[in-house]
Amino acid sequence: MYPKQHLIMSQKVLLTSKEVNIILHRLACQLIEKHLDFSDTILIGIQPRGTFLAERLKDFLEKEYAIPKIALGYLDITFFRDDFRRTNKPLEANKTQIDFIVENKKVVFIDDVLYTGRSIRSALTAIQSFGRPSEIELLVLIDRRFSRHLPIQPDYRGRQVDAINDEKVNVCWKEQDGEDAVYLINK
Fold this sequence. Notes:
Layout: E1 10-15, H1 17-35, E2 41-46, H2 50-64, E3 71-75, E4 106-114, H3 118-127, E5 135-144, E6 156-161, E7 167-172, H4 174-177, E8 181-186
Parallel strand pairs: 2-3, 2-4, 4-5, 5-6
Antiparallel strand pairs: 1-8, 7-8
């Protein structure tokens, strides 16, 4: 048996930069079909990694589809998670930035990967601090099937991935990681 530092990890490209771009356009078009002018719709990026996807979609909608002034916020769910006290490492909370009322608005939660559903459950609890939305939808870039702990499904999905529990989906964003890509990492 090898020590942990000698374990070999392999990675497979699930989405290239070009494929990510195509999916972002498709997701933007699906949002337009449902929300038209976005006058009653708010996009909420779930911290930390959903914010990159949310910003990119807002940019697409405003610049490429000429939809003015889309409301975008960021929601930190750290202290709303059901497992936040079960870890020995210190928690690193992100900043919640919601500068508007969500009361009676349509909210679209945006996250990079839907895995167990626990982050979304936490977001549903956290958003209540800002009012009662009329509707909440979920948009994810990657939907990992077969791994749900809760009955949560996306309304909009970029790609569905069948990954087993030892595999990790790693979404890279140009803004933070230097490239747009999605990898399946086998530990």
